[in-house]
Amino acid sequence: MKRRTFVKTTGLIAGGLLLNKTDLFANRVNGVINIGVIGCGDRGKGIIRVLDEFPEKFKVTAVCDVLDMRLAEARKLAKNTPYIEYKDHRALLENKQLDAIIVAVPLNMHYPVAVDVLKSGKHLYLEKTMTYNIEQALNLVKLAESRPKQILQVGHQYRYSPLYYRVKEMISKGYLGKVSQVDCRWDRNANWRRPVPDASLERQINWRMYKEYSGGLVAELLSHQMDFINWAFDTHPADFLATGGIDVFKDGRETYDNVQLMLRYPDQNMVGNFGATCGNSRDGYLFKIKGTKGTVSLLTDRGMFYPEKGLPKEKGLVDGVTGATKISWDKEGGTPILPDPTRDGTWYALNDFYEKIGSGTLPDSNIYTGAKTAICVHLANQALYNNEIVHWKKEYLSLDRGTK
What we know:
By secondary structure, the protein is of the alpha/beta class.
């Protein structure tokens, strides 16, 4: 069975999801969507700050967290009207004034909370990685398909960045030539630990360090780059090899602080290398896509194109590939892909969330693509922690229908 057996055109999918706009916002006033945020840790509070940049589109009216300290932190972000506060997300979902929900809880809770949100009839922005394991990913796809009037967007925000859109276009038009290698890193020199005011809260606050709750560095960081490769090349890995360990911080954590993955994409004849460490920050975020005609080197907000030696550095090449308004080569022979740095990817993603709720069409980062990347993360961690080579299974092929 070929990988594209189940591919559907975007138009057919989107057409099936088009909604009557009068059904979408029962409670909105002047086009503003009432938002509830479930999970007020670092990511949840960060999303609230971005939502506040769209006062004409979003209004955060309710927040939920199981920890009083997180609710107190979120309380400080409220502008004019205090948030309605909840300790139980199910109580928040009973609020009929809410149109859409942001879910930014620990990874092991993504699936049960997402199920409750969908069953409540509200639109959902679900942070990455979409689910904790493969079974949950496939089950959530089925549930979302049964509720086509609701938008479910997954928080892989680089799918919305103008920079990463441009790189995807460069790849599809062949400006990089034949891509055979992808090199990705997301490093830091820190233990990734949060302060714990009470020892009994250790696992709730530092959940990323414990396998029961977390997918570790692969889920929290490398999933973004893995997701972009899936999207840009319309692919997924077939073979997963990995190694790593708790090599830096001997502090009782269970998830590795030093990981290296090698993924094989046979349909692209391409190898992807993905690594992260908590013991060195020199590279930080590094993302290189290497082809026979040139290399793209990306940060989160800017990127450079480096043509292979021997290829002409002509104005046509610059304008055609990068869209630059003038030739601007750096000392290493590269030119900016876009003339200016982009905003944080979450800004673009939330802006599109609003637009997709209004149009009723499938987001770029949707239930199918989110499930595909969640499966990649799970298989990579299986290879990492079990020290084995793991393979993609043919029953996951139907997830290709969310490709754009």
